[in-house]
Amino acid sequence: NYHFSSEAARTSFMANPLGFITPGTFPPVPPPRIIILGASFSGKTIPARRLMRRTRLFHMSFPERLRELAVLLGNEHGETIKAHLQDPLDNPLPPDVAVAVVQRLWAEEPFKSNGFVLEGFPRNEEEARVMTAAGLFPDVVVTLNMSVASALKRALPGKLAEFNKTRAAELKKRETKALIKEARLASHRRAWEEYRAVERERLKAEMGDEYESDGEEYEPPADDDEEEEETTLETEAEASDRLKEEITQAQEQFTDELNALKDV
After folding, report:
1. What is the rounded distance in angstroms from the CA atom of residue 140 to the CA atom of residue 125?
2. pLDDT in tens, 41-67
3. Are 31 and 37 in contact (CB under 8 A)?
């Protein structure tokens, strides 16, 4: 709020506000630093890339940047990031490492002068607090809200397709293993029968009328190593129920984290 010494001073200012500003002293407009947050499959990348094309801002997807750093030689946080990507639950990414990944957007050129769109970061309250403590403040934060029903509609088909692909590969692997075992046993039996036929002829020649068949029957060989019991494969219906629950929980978790971020 602005306060004037008198009503006359206020009237004078309102009549010509530019007359009270020294020409050429306008501060430069800082480059925009925009953050887009949203749950998985909420569509963060679409507006981020549109902004990038229209404004020529740099675009960084935090998940994609993590995958790049995990394989980048000489990266000091590479092993930590790689372990996090392989098992996020058992290897959460330390907030200081997460902030170090995006800090260059504020500190280094050309991001510092041109501005950027950062997608998918911060992901939780702790990362946001470490981020602000480091002096990394965005100009705009865009949040994309999505209902559980929309999340299921967008995420479930792709996850089910991936499940079916993995399941088909496992079934093929088991089928191949069974065929190999069957062929090995058939070969072993043929060899045994050929050996027994030769052995019978030899004994007949040696013993003559005294020869009697011992009636030995074929027994398949015991496996050298006990085979691991194969687990029952999950059906598509069971996988669908499990995936629905996982997607719902992830959506609810993001909503809780987003509400916590608003308080930072």
Report:
1. 17
2. 888 888 888 888 888 889 999 988 888
3. no
